[in-house]
Amino acid sequence: MQDEMTPGGPPSIVAGEWQPPAELNTGIPHPARMYDYYLGGKDHFPADREAAEKIIALMPDARLGARINREFLGRAVEFAVGSGIRQFLDIGTGIPAMGSTSEVAHRVAPDARVVYVDNDPIVLTHARALLAHHPAGHTTVLHADLRDPAAILADPGLKQAIDLSRPVALMLVAVLHFVRDEEGAAETVAQLRDVLAPGSMLILSHGTQDLMTPQAAEETTRIYRGASSPLVLRARAEVEKFFGDFELVDPGLVQLPLWRPQGQLPQGWQEAAPAYAGVAVKR
Questions:
Q1: How close are the terminal C-alpha atoms of the chain, in Å?
Q2: Rounded Cα distance, 217 and 210, in Å
Q3: Peptide bond just before 261 cis, omega within 30 deg
Q4: Distances in whole angstroms, Cα of residue 152 to Cα of each of 18, 94, 273
Q5: Global pTM?
Q6: 275-281 and 201-207 as β-strands: parallel, antiparallel, unpaired?
Q7: What is the bridge-based pairing of β-strands 87-91 and 113-118?
Q8: Bridge partners for 170 per DSSP
Q9: What mean pLDDT do residues 181-193 have?
């Protein structure tokens, strides 16, 4: 979901003025491609692998953490479908491989409509290739950035695929911790929440320093400073604010693997998943 930028930090973003990068900078690590590497995918470059290996050296269970996050996504999508939702807006998609939103949603509800949004050109290229066999209109891929919600909401592809007068599951899974407060993280989420119909859901996971040692938190954020977007770890109270007046469903905002787990938790989950997760409903 992050744009390509110099390691020194992101450019100033003005609402409505941001444009996705025209060219792919493979020399700068990108969180979406790093995440693909953690999950055992193949859509990444040397810079992504180098940065990811630094994280793995610091947090040996980083790959397990990525799998735990993907499993939360699957459980949340199944919950949304079971609650009657058939429209999904997944922003900061990453490469939609095994266990992706569309795979889970269409397995349990073939009529579900999924819109993926990401700003990394390679993510978009691979997503469109992977999803080319899907029935027309059931899965849409948009090139846009979370930090410009107005552009996402105005995109003709979104309007064609999703009816905002009906419930939508807005998915911000492991993406908001790449948006800084000064870039309007809270305002962006509020703008997206406000357009959703009653019965819609916000599905969210977010990294936190609460569940890390100070040294690990500092070193992790330092490594991501060299990526296309810096990592912003937030405390529980800060993450909870993103839900606004939406009502959190049980068990509330909890450590990632503890959101409605299925079966026994994997060994080492406490250290592998320093993140919060929750699902909330608009009443």
A1: 28
A2: 9
A3: no
A4: 11, 16, 30
A5: 0.86
A6: antiparallel
A7: parallel
A8: 89, 202
A9: 97
